[in-house]
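Internal tracking record. Fields below are filled automatically when a chain is submitted to the structure queue. Please do not edit lines marked as system-generated. If the sequence contains nonstandard residues, flag them in the REMARKS field before resubmitting.
Queue: standard
Priority: normal
Entity type: single polypeptide chain
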Amino acid sequence: MLDNDVADPAVTEPRRGAPNLADLPVALEDVEHAASLLEGVIERTPVAHSRALSRMLGSEVWVKAENLQRSGSFKVRGAYNRMAQLTDEEKARGVVAASAGNHAQGVALAARRLGIQATIYMPLGAALPKVAATQDHGAEVVLHGSKVDEALAEARRVAEETGKVFVHPFDHPDIIAGQGTLGLEILDQVPNVDTVLTGVGGGGLLAGLAVALKAREAQGGRPVRVIGVQAENAAAYPPSLAGDALVSLEKVSTIADGIAVGQPGQLPFQIIKELADDVVTVSEDRLAESLIFMLERNKLVVEPAGVVGVAALLDGRLKETYGDLGATVVVLSGGNVDPMLMLKVIQRGLAAAGRYMTVKMMLVDRPGELTHISSIISRLDANVTGVDHTRIGGSLAMGDVSITIDMETKGHEHSRQVLDALEAEGYRPVVVH
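SYSTEM-GENERATED OUTPUT FOLLOWS
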């Protein structure tokens, strides 16, 4: 777990200067109160030193394994803190929420602990394991709409109609304060921390972390750089921060469904624009590659939304921007991944890392042609895992064959060697993925 014997690296000053904590909707006292309410309810998740990431970054890196939290993500922190502070009359009315999975499970777990009836609206495409886990905690699950936003609108409508308390996934002070308890744990577990990276959807977690870390800094504690990371196909924060106004994305499409939010939350945005040092983006391929990296190198199952911080480190642009990040903690925010999605992500991640390649070629339809191609690939120690060929198609001339070959390779350089060898023999392979 935590390696306390590492040297304290040189501290680089946060880019934004002294934090402005005045007039924000959440204060350090709120986070500390949330921590007291959560004692005995949540796990104090471990912090693990990552040698692989440390060697790659050139400074010490730890991962805060919130994927091992009860309900599988950090969301239970905010949900429980919000619901524990309801009045008896509000608790008797019950709660309603909407989520694609993690907030749903957090609310369901908190409701069971507090004896509150919970109704959770989830989109029709929600992963079956997440639906089942939410139901297992005792919540009623209603599938509605094709997107989280539609489920959210329906949950709001039902709350207004029935009088049930609506538990927002990120846009409420108690939710933000609950998520901020992660920051207090990080300061205790890695006292020499210089940089904290976390994923961002609506912004509740980043906002809570920023309050905890920057407020402790203002009290004379260690300066800590706080950076949020979004999937580039679901990145509403960079344009919102640049324009100092909430931007709503027309389309959100990412494998990181846990942070697939089209518009920042009003309260998180207010905090993040004042306290966070940066919000950066990462590609889908880098997300997939990072999930595999955590599986292979740290032996941790993390959902795509939970590895965005790792993806930002693997991408390398943070180091180019900030130089030495110092002692860095990456929050692995959740581990609730659908096995079917995992299969797709692993394949994409292997392709992004140059370890899986699919090529398409046109061949002359004659005996021995496929054997010849197979021998070229075999000679270079690549492994064919699938072959598909067809003689029929509008783009095929008489006597031509279209062939698609799936193969395992050993990296980008090895993949290039295979392609070069095929081209040297007169073939024209086109990489599909």
